[in-house]
Every structure is written in C-alpha cells, then in structure tokens.
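Protocol step 4 of 6: structure prediction from sequence.
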Amino acid sequence: MTRPAPVSPAEAVRYLTGITTTGTPHLGNYVGAIRPAVQASRTAGTQNFYFLADYHALIKCDDPARIQRSTLEIAACWLAAGLDPEQVFFYRQSDIPEIPELTWFLTCVCGKGLLNRAHAYKAAVDKNAATGADPDTDVTAGLFMYPVLMAADIILFNAHKVPVGRDQIQHIEMARDMASSFNHLYGAHFTLPEAAVDEWVATLPGLDGRKMSKSYDNTIGLFAPPAQIRKQIAGIVTDSRAPGEPKDTEGSALFQIYQAFATPEETEALRRAYAEGIAWGDAKQLLFERIDREIAPMRERYQSLVDNPAELERILKRGAEKARAIATPFMGRLREAVGLRNLGTQAAGGAKKTEKAALPAFKQYREADGLHYFKLVDTSGRLLLQSRGFESPREAGQAVAALKAQGLPAVAALGPQVERPQDVTENELGMSLSRLMPEA
C-alpha cells in the first residue's frame, strides 16, 4: 500500500473525526462515512485524529453492556475497513483525561446563552413545549453541555479541519467561539477549527428505497454473516417487471447500491443488463457477489478483532498514549495559563521582575556546520519558532529584527527559512511575537 510522503508535523493540516459508538454499522455507514474517511487518512500533508466518542454515547444510552459492546464493534469495524493505527491517532475518548479537564475550562468561559441556541437542546425544548410539558423535561445536563465536550475534543489537539455534515456545522462554530473566548482571556493557545463539509456525501438507499437508516429498519449489515446479507438483499423492493422486460436504472435502489461498490465498467455492464431485461433475482445475486467481494476480506479481519478484545484494547491504549503525548504537555500549559500553578514557583522580586520574565526571547547561535541560527523560546524554554541556517550572523539578525517589528507577516515572508513546532499554534506564535513588537 502506498503511503504519503513524509511531511513536517508543523506543516500538516490536522483533521479530527469523532466516531459515534452506538449502534451496529451498516452498508450506508460504510459508503457514506467509513470508506471515504479511511481513504482520506492516507492523504499526503495531513495529520489525522480519529476517536471513539464513548463519553458522548452516555448522553443517549444508559445500558453499560451496550456501550461496551458497541465500542468494541465499531473500533473493530474501522480497523477492518483499513484504518491504520500506526499512521493515524486512533483512540478512545474516555482514555484521554485531558478532555474532561478542558471541558471544564471551556465551561467557565462559555456563556449559557450560546448553549441555549444549540440545535439538539432547542429541539428537545420545542418538543416539550408542543406537548405542554415543562421545557426541561427529560433534558439532561449532558445534552445541554454536549457542545462544550465536543469543543474540547476538537481544540485539545488544535485541529484545523473537522469533517462534519451540515447539521453539525453549528457545533464547530460554537467550538470556535469557546476557543476565541479562552484565547481572549488567557492568550493565544487554540487554533480556531473549521468545518470541512463534503458537498457530495454518498448515501445509499435502503431495502425499501428510502435512505438506509436504522430508524427505518431498512439496513443491510456491514459485517453480518453472508447468509443474512443475501437474505436482506433478496428483500430489496423492486417493481413487477418480469424477466426479459427492460428495466429502469433510474430510481432503482438495487442499481444504486451496486453502483456504490462497482467499477465504472461493472456499473455500465449492469446498466446494459437492465436494458436487456435481467431477472431481478439474477440482479440481486450480482449485487450480493459484488458486495461480498469487497466486504469478505474485511469481515475476516473484523471477526478476528471482535474475537480478541484484548488486542483491540491494546491498540486503543497505544493510540491514547500517542494522543496524550500531545495533550498532556499542552494541558499543562493551559493550567499554567489559567493560574492553576505550582505555588512554589512564584517569582520573587516584585511585579517589574515578573513582568520582564514573562516575555519570550530570541536566542542566536552558530552550529558546527558554520551556519547561523536563531530560535524563539518562551519563559520556560519551550520552543516557539526555529530557523534554518543563515550564511552570516547579519542575515540571521535581520530576520530576527523583522520578526520583532512585524510579527506573523514576517514569518510568512521568511517562508521555509523558519518552522513552527507541531504543538505551537499560529495564534500562540502571533501573540508571542506581538509582545516583542515596539509600542506604537
């Protein structure tokens, strides 16, 4: 399998995808979400985070056994579909304690009015109003606070893009609002995420021709036994045209499902068979064979993972370790920013000394290669910006002077001559440089 060329983490576009952990995946989930997401995870120049949203599942489900089983099945499903945990960050939400901690930080900067406007909360209140019930009947604090937890999921890893459907755009906008509020109060720590909306999301018709959905009870199981899938396909609604009578592909659920799995050549062959009057039973057999050709190898991998939950647990724990290597130090800086600090590190010497110590600083030096370098570090020595080598100290000094005078525009002007580390956001770097700029 071809892998994308290596890219610097500082240059990569970070995508974050939350995976619902309730229900059993069906073919519609696979075609509309799982398959395109796995393909996108192999895109060059990206860094991809996929997490199992088991905290979110608690809002909708109070059956512990179902929560556990669904998490296992859905984790196995994504891995069987080709998601490579060595190439992406694949973790369980509840294995990242920094997420609920950040949720509380964001709760303290998020206005209640913002949450009042959340679509899911408003829908629940409107439903109660329509029946004359108390507005908050059956509305849990979890449902009300859902957007804050989702914001924490996203901005903890400073995701640039969040693939969502149009019904989720509001949550990304709310995450931006919360990140902006925090940045305004405590300095530029968070990247403001953007919704990545696929304008053409593949949808499959179900057995009855409506959109395939568990709500309509018209699904075909993704990793159901072959005999069950064959039986479900046999139940696809067709018209009454007999063998030998030409059939229309337009509006045919059977044809649309086949098209989602077939090559253009295979699709065209079935189109001709429709025109020539293929029997519905034969068409359904072709559909079963085409689906099984793609799904059977994945089903074997899926079953091996489901039968070995300890292996799944190991993969998820390893994914959590990778994710926490980013989240833990970042959360430490956020704790410092809000004032949750080690009391023994209080600087002595008065306010002026403290204020002076709070400024980031440029360090210039010469390496063994004879070139001249500089770096920008914060007061704890953390790297904020690193240069490539310059031929002379004068050139390095001119670059530093430009950065102090112009801030972020100078970073853009220097281009590949400077590099921002992965864990430093553009907003954070800009704020640090602005503190070094001369007062107007």
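Step 5 (inspection) to follow. DSSP finds 17 helices and nine strands in the chain.
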